[in-house]
Write a structure and sequence with these properties.
heterodimer, A: alpha+beta, Ubiquitin-like (UB roll), five-stranded mixed sheet, globular, B: alpha+beta, Uridine Diphospho-n-acetylenolpyruvylglucosamine Reductase, domain 2, Uridine Diphospho-n-acetylenolpyruvylglucosamine Reductase, domain 3, Enolase-like, domain 1, 25% strand
Chain lengths: 159, 291
């Protein structure tokens, strides 16, 4: 039996009518066409599906869409400001922090949550914040460097 | 594939209890769902009615009273416990345990109560709470009751929680003076489930440095978190030294009841228990000396 669900995603309001068993990742990708969020393992092990819920990084494959009601959701689509990439996105490009790109949206969203909380993380703090994210391509070092690079850029912008 | 269910999102404990009583064994509670949804996706459980209690905000709190100790609401997220200044300062072993529980994403949404009710034998919070002599409060149609965390776990994924009850609070008393508690787990990746784990609490005597109490709790070494009582007896009443810790480790590895699975053989788990108990007891002893 479908139920009404109101979601706020990247600042926009959506009215949906869905079965309560639907997962957030599927509603984002299918009903809303926001396919930037990827489904890697579908069992909560890879964090490719990470989005922000009220600013907190969560795995969207492990949350019922109904639980996102009355929360602010941010997906990878919500990061760029028109044609201007977010410093994290630019930094991932500059540091070669992706190859196939499948894990990348989830990595960037988690990194954004980290930097929103702590603009001066150490490499160890970056690794701890990101340790749920699996990447088969890069070997991870460039991802850490990209996040530290973006932190530097954001610190400068804050001045 | 998750099977269809009828969904309710009560806003109060009373509403939730009414629903539990009405739908009895056909319903399950979901909080953060970080463990539940995995089982539901695999078709291992398929409740007809799902009671989503994540919205009951009155169960999300961390309170401390200098006489009563720590009181944590069952819907408090792992992340809240990990970062709480109250917990970091007074019960740091809980924050340390949370820090290495899964990943930040799981901790942001998953709750301590959900973790305990899921009762995975490899779960991290249970051994720590047992070492800390924690208690659990649950509420049902007949009122409230409290039990030791140690008595809550019956078997793999089975607890003493009745079908019409909700876990509401985790209670941790103030540790006795000169007590140190440490938790460590062996896992292949940071944040992974434990291959084996150990929570050890050492209390030193008020007059001298003999061990007046030891609580050694093993995780992932039995169907439920288990007290390694023979290992504890090796230490209690004695002056601690390395050879004694070694002996305690050996006793723990003999009384443990680990399984063999694709992650580790029974023999390897026993070996790990021996090493871990010795190591963690040593750390707890150091912490007790500085307490």
């Amino acid at each position: 039996m479908k139920k009404e669900l109101n979601l706020t995603i990247n600042g926009e309001a959506y009215e949906l009518f869905i079965e309560p068993k639907r997962l957030l990742v599927d509603v984002l990708r299918n009903e809303l066409g926001l396919t930037g969020t990827k489904k890697g393992c579908n069992c909560g092990a890879c964090a490719a599906c990470t989005v922000l819920l009220d600013g907190k990084a969560v795995k969207s494959c492990s949350i019922l869409a109904m639980q996102a009601s009355a929360r602010n959701i941010t997906t990878i689509e919500g990061l760029a400001d028109g044609p201007n990439l977010h410093p994290l996105q630019q930094s991932f490009i500059d540091h070669w922090a992706f190859q196939c790109g499948f894990c990348t949206p989830g990595q960037i969203m988690a990194a954004k949550a980290l930097l929103d909380e702590n603009l001066k993380p150490t490499a160890e703090e970056v690794k701890l914040a990101m340790d749920g994210h699996l990447c088969r391509c890069t070997g991870y070092n460039m991802i850490v460097e990209a996040i530290l690079g973006a932190a530097q850029k954001l610190q400068q912008e804050a001045k | 594939m998750i099977k269809d269910f009828k969904y309710f999102a009560p806003k109060t404990v009373e509403e939730a209890l009414t629903l539990l009583t009405k739908y009895k064994e056909n319903c399950k509670i979901i909080a953060g769902g970080q463990s539940m949804l995995i089982l539901m996706k695999q078709g291992l459980i398929a409740p007809k009615y799902l009671i989503d209690i994540k919205g009951i905000t009155t169960l999300d709190y961390v309170n401390y009273d200098k006489n009563e100790g720590l009181r944590i609401g069952s819907l408090t997220t792992h992340r809240t416990i990990e970062t709480s200044p109250t917990i970091r300062n007074g019960f740091s072993v809980l924050a340390e345990m949370e820090r290495n529980l899964a990943s930040v994403e799981t901790r942001n949404w998953g709750t301590i109560g959900g973790n305990l009710c899921h009762a995975d034998p490899a779960g991290d919070p249970a051994p720590v709470l047992i070492a800390l002599e924690g208690k659990l409060k649950m509420v049902g149609p007949n009122g409230e009751r409290t039990m030791a965390v140690e008595d809550f776990f019956k078997d793999y994924f089975e607890t003493a929680l009745q079908a019409d009850e909700i876990l509401t609070e985790i209670q941790v008393p103030n540790p006795p003076p000169r007590t140190g508690t440490v938790y460590r787990k062996f896992s292949l990746l940071e944040g992974d489930y434990a291959l084996v784990s150990a929570a050890v609490s050492i209390t030193l005597g008020s007059k001298d440095d003999t061990c007046s109490d030891a609580r050694i709790v093993l995780g992932a070494a039995a169907p439920v978190p288990m007290r390694a009582e023979r290992a504890e007896k090796v230490l209690i009443g004695k002056e601690l030294k390395d050879t004694l810790l070694q002996e305690a480790g050996k006793a723990a590895s003999e009384e443990a009841r680990p399984i063999a699975d694709m992650h580790a053989s029974e023999e390897y788990r026993r070996e790990l228990v021996g090493v871990l108990v010795k190591r963690v007891a040593g750390e707890a002893w150091e912490r007790a000396k500085r307490a």
